[in-house]
Automatic annotation (TrEMBL):
Annotated ranges, domain O-methyltransferase dimerisation: 8-100
Source species taxonomy: Eukaryota, Viridiplantae, Streptophyta, Embryophyta, Tracheophyta
Molecular function via GO: O-methyltransferase activity; protein dimerization activity
Residue ranges of every copy of the O-methyltransferase C-terminal domain listed in the record: 122-327
Pfam assignment, any one: Dimerisation
Domain of life of the source: Eukaryota
Organism in which the protein naturally occurs: Adiantum capillus-veneris (Maidenhair fern)
Protein name: Uncharacterized protein
Keywords associated with the record: Methyltransferase, S-adenosyl-L-methionine, Transferase
Active site: H251 (proton acceptor)
InterPro entries referenced in this protein's UniProt entry, alphabetically: COMT-like, COMT_C, COMT_dimerisation, SAM-dependent_MTases_sf, WH-like_DNA-bd_sf, WH_DNA-bd_sf
GO BP term (any one): methylation
Length: 346
């Protein structure tokens, strides 16, 4: 029975993020009532912006949402002998959903994956099985990246989500991966607004960074020390550098398109240059741990979004790399369910 209703959980989380519930708990739970880090639904409702319902009515609906989140451990809860029946607190892990902490929050990513654009596509998974082709284009009438380019609101949400994900991954990645320091120049292919590269060059100021993405993307990119924004098309040519970095790029594309991208990477590198890429790596057999489930879920997101995109096993990444002319794929380390991989030009 629970599995048949799992779609409710992400929408409850989306509602809590949109209502700033986590931020309210972080800001007010220590100062109100008993100062024990917990607030009742009514206390939270009193702080909701844009509320036209009474506190009592808002609290009644809110409590039902928060109860679901607490049952999955996304909120802490306590029941007191007197006063409100249940009060809610913020576990450390759930602080990732705070909207006020832009450098560590994944709230924009939650809002992106629960956006109607995605859910309308998820609702048609069965047609991908029956009819193949580009599921996103069949549902929305245009390809995913075309919609991002033409829909200003969705474009903003998409880039905010990618920025949030970049900060989450890169801050922790740079603490354990030290492969960037050997290079004097790095191109971030599909680097968006340049957030990843800015973190790399901040830690390694000797690196000349080139943030490479489509012209309309880099046109809105902020200025970062040591980073030059260059517009272009990775399917045509990639700026030359000693190393190339890609995060969550290959999973957006079909095998043939990945080989094209990697071949262009090969052509832009000197001998012994490297491509450093960050992707989920699917287990060889079905596993049930949280990292595996996250990669399987993201694989379905890829089915819903770009044409031909998918998550891959290590062996599949090796095959793509060899086809493009690289050798010796190495998985160097892992963080947040993602693997840092290196391939070399020899």
């Amino acid at each position: 029975m629970e599995v048949s209703m799992l779609g409710v959980l992400p929408m409850a989380l989306k509602a809590a993020v949109e209502l700033n519930v986590m931020d309210i708990l972080a800001q007010h739970a220590g100062a109100e009532a008993e100062g024990d880090g917990y607030l009742s639904a009514a206390q939270i409702a009193a702080h909701l912006e844009g509320r036209t319902a009474s506190v009592e009515e808002a609290a009644s609906a809110l409590d039902r949402i928060l109860r679901v989140l607490a049952s999955y451990g996304l909120l802490a809860s306590t029941t007191k002998a007197t006063g409100p029946k249940t009060s809610y607190g913020l576990p450390a892990a759930t602080s990732r959903f705070l909207r006020s902490t832009s450098s560590t929050s994944i709230a924009p990513f939650v809002l992106l994956l629960q956006h109607p654009v995605f859910w309308q596509t998820y609702n048609k998974f069965h047609t991908a099985v029956l009819h193949g082709g580009d599921l996103f284009a069949r549902v929305h009438g245009l390809k995913a990246f075309s919609l991002i380019q033409t829909d200003a609101a969705f474009n903003q949400l998409f880039h905010h989500a990618m920025l949030a994900l970049s900060h989450l991954v890169m801050n922790d990645l740079l603490a354990i991966y030290h492969g960037f320091q050997a290079f004097r120049s790095i191109v971030d292919v599909g680097g968006g607004l340049g957030a990843c590269l800015s973190l790399i060059t901040s830690k390694y100021p000797h690196i000349k960074g080139t943030n490479f993405d489509l012209p309309h993307v880099v046109a809105g990119a902020p200025t970062y020390p040591g980073v030059e924004h260059v517009g272009g098309d990775m399917f045509e040519a990639i700026p030359k550098s000693e190393a190339i970095f890609m995060k969550h790029i290959l999973h957006c594309w079909s095998d043939d398109n990945c080989v094209k991208i990697l071949t262009n990477c090969l052509n832009s590198l000197p001998i012994y240059g490297k491509v450093i890429f960050v992707e989920a790596v699917l287990p060889k057999q079905v596993e049930q741990d949280s990292d595996a489930r996250a990669s399987y879920n993201m694989d379905l997101v890829m089915l819903a979004f770009p044409d031909g995109g998918k998550e891959r096993t290590k062996e599949e990444f090796e095959a793509l790399s060899l086809h493009a002319g690289f050798s010796n794929l190495q998985v160097v380390c892992s963080i947040h369910g993602l693997s840092v991989m290196e391939i070399s030009k020899t």
